[in-house]
Amino acid sequence: MSKSIKVVNQNNFDSEVLKSNKPVLVDFWAAWCGPCRMVAPVIDQLADEYEGKLEIAKVNVDENPELAGKYDIMSIPSVFLFNNGSKVDGVIGARPKQIFDDMLKKHI
Predict the structure, then answer these.
(1) Which of the residues 26, 36, 42, 94 is marked catalytic?
(2) Which of the following CATH numbers is that of domain 5-107: 3.30.300.30, 3.40.30.10, 3.30.70.100, 3.30.70.1230?
(3) Is 51 an annotated catalytic residue?
């Protein structure tokens, strides 16, 4: 995992994501999830490529069921972009890197 990716939980989600001065890409995942493991290297690449332009955070849904419920996480991986305290876009499932790039370019 890239050093610039933050591990976020229900205790620091508001301060790290909702109150961030930059857009935050949040990866909702679980350790047992095969597609989550497939998308992890893509998230690492995005962290390196967009460093300084946005923050990237990971939320383990098994350890943070309240957050998963609050953001209606029905499938994982669910990767959402938050900006100014609101969820503005997202990608569900293990998708090619270009899909994530296209989403980010619309907002950054």
Answers:
(1) 36
(2) 3.40.30.10
(3) no
The residue whose two tokens read 């050093």 is 3
Q: Where are the domains of the chain?
A: 5-107
User: Catalytic: which of 24, 33, 67, 94?
Assistant: 33
Binned at pLDDT 50, 70 and 90, residue 95 comes out as very high
- What does the block give as tokens for 80? 């959402």
- How does pLDDT run across 23-82, given as a tens digit for each residue? 999 999 999 999 999 999 999 999 999 999 999 999 999 999 999 999 999 999 999 999
pTM score: 0.95
CA 11/CA 66 separation, integer angstroms: 11
Residue 61 annotated to the active site: no
